[in-house]
Amino acid sequence: QVQLVQSGAEVKKPGSSVKVSCKASAGLLNNYGVSWVRQAPGQGLEWMGGIIPIFGTSNYAQKFQGRVTISTDESTDTAYMELASLTSEDTAVYYCARSLLVIVGGTGRSDAFDIWGQGTMVTVSS
Amino acid sequence: DIQMTQSPSSLSASIGDRVTITCRASQSIRHYLNWYQQKPGTAPKFLIHAASSVQSGVPSRFSGSGSGTDFTLTISSLQPEDIATYYCQQSFSTAPTFGGGTKVEIK
Fold first, then answer.
1. How many angstroms separate the first and last alpha carbons of chain A?
2. Whole-angstrom distance, CA of residue B36 vs CA of residue B50
3. The 3-state secondary structure of chain B, one letter per residue
4. Are A57 and A103 in contact (CB under 8 A)?
5. How many CB atoms lie within 10 A of CB A20?
6. CB contact under 8 A, B96 and A100
7. Most A CBs within 10 Å, among B73, B98, B102, B103, to test the A interface
8. What are the CA-CA distances from residue A67 to residues A19, A44, B107 (Å)?
9. What is the mean pLDDT of chain B?
10. Burial group, residue A117, by CB count within 10 angstroms (0-12, 13-18, 19+)
11. Region B75-82: what's the mean pLDDT?
12. Which among B1, B43, B91 is the nearest to A118, CB-wise?
């Protein structure tokens, strides 16, 4: 069964960092992208950034530039999202999602998100 | 960033009713519009790709239409299992953005 399995819930102190993992079934991410989307309690979905391994590109929402790093380890079919300088406003459920790709002129961008992880709750509290 | 505005933010309808949700983009996004369904405590589910392509396994009562800046998601006959929040998402730009969501409840 194709799926993305995320690491468990985290409780962090303000100012610290968190790293969430997203393990894919073998081959699930081949020729696809991976994005991270978060959802604060009672709020909507917010795209944080994504990576497209076959093009070696990553991009981030302006809001998170300089604070978030998204990476993949193709040897283990695992994606990672690290968010630094945490504040209480970063308390949210963090989802990884496989993205279809729009291929234009030899490069690509994220299209729809067709498979999602189960979500990881990150709580930032002193 | 491209802003996505959904309306209404919530609605209440009876079983069997036709339900329409609107999504408007702040600029033309051609057909690069996707829809998701999210039930409480679960991850979003991919429903519709490229404005009107209903994904495999999604009931035929769901449909999507539109292009440019204005899009709609229609549920032709609301069922109890359709109670959820629905989100649109644009994939025209390199920074995808979501609408604010529409919560669908049973009257």
1. 39
2. 12
3. CCCEEEECCEEEECCCCCEEEEEEECCCCCCCEEEEEECCCCCCEEEEECCCEECCCCCCCEEEEEECCEEEEEECCCCHHHCEEEEEEECCCCCCEECCCEEEEEC
4. no
5. 23
6. no
7. B98
8. 12, 21, 44
9. 98
10. buried
11. 98
12. B43
Q: What is the pLDDT of residue A22?
A: 97
Partner residue facing A102 (CB), from B38, B91, B98: B91
- Separation between Cα atoms, residue A28 and residue B64, nearest integer Å: 27
> pLDDT grade, residue A26 (50/70/90)?
confident
Please, which residues have CB within 8 angstroms of residue B6's CB and are 6 or more apart in sequence? B21, B22, B23, B24, B86, B87, B88, B99, B100, B101, B102
In sequence order, what are the beta bridge partners of B21? Answer: B73
- Nearest beta carbon to residue A44 from set B34, B46, B87: B87
Mean pLDDT of B53-58: 98
Tokens of A1: 């069964």
10 Å Cβ neighbour count for B45?
Answer: 17
Per-residue pLDDT tens over the stretch A27-58: 888 889 999 999 999 999 999 999 998 888 99
Q: Are B101 and B87 in contact (CB under 8 A)?
A: yes
Q: Does B96 sit behind a cis peptide bond, omega within 30 degrees of 0 on the bond before it? A: no
